[in-house]
Amino acid sequence: MLIGTAEFLSTVSVSSDCRVEQVSEAALQGLGEFQTSTAAVAVAKMKPNKPLTFNDDEFAVVLDDIRDPGNLGTIIRTADWYGINKIIASPETADFYNPKVISATMGSFTRTQILYADLEGFLSSVKGKSVYGAYLEGQNIYKTRFATGGFIVIGNESRGISEQLEPLISQKITIPRFGRAESLNAAIATAVILDNVRRQS
User: Fold this and answer.
1) What is the radius of gyration, based on Cα positions, of the chain?
2) What is the pTM of this model?
């Protein structure tokens, strides 16, 4: 279902199975989660949490306890930018459908498949695949030769990757620090790593 102002609805094409309702801007402001809902609000079905399949030549992002909705949304948007549309998240990771997550993705959530799963069990099941873990100490990403596919594990904003996952990481990688900051934001770290992965492809 798409609810929007006349001005907005005149700029989009909508499939025949989507119900469309035209409303005033004032009426629309009371429907959304944000004060900036002044053009349109969409209602969509949630994607089922079902197993994903992976090709040998594709990367996926694995998120270990990413609690901040803004970080999760930005990671989804960043992954989409770099052509990565599969994300595996721990049960503790923020809800994919949190309004702040959806807003931060800027539409990338529509192109992303996400699976919430026990990460220890998931990573144990992908034997033979390259699993790169982002750590404060690891191989310099600028000197890392990435495989043609695999998994990039990003840890919690303050604690990093869980101890129980460490044995399942095939290669620890790090973004070299040149200044004095203690750490990088999880979304920023994801962007830097994915940029380096794609530079080699």
Assistant:
1) 19
2) 0.88
Burial per residue of 53-87, b for 16 or more beta-carbon CB atoms within 10 angstroms, e otherwise: eeeeeebbbbbbbbebbebbbbbbbbbbebebbbb
Distance of alpha carbon 29 from the chain centroid = 28
pLDDT in tens, the chain (201 residues): 999 999 999 999 988 999 999 998 888 877 766 666 678 888 888 889 999 999 999 999 999 999 999 999 999 999 999 999 999 999 999 999 998 999 899 989 999 999 999 999 999 999 889 999 999 999 999 999 999 999 999 999 889 999 999 999 999 999 999 999 988 999 999 999 999 999 987
Domain architecture of the chain: domains with CATH = 2-42 (no CATH), 59-199 (3.40.1280.10)
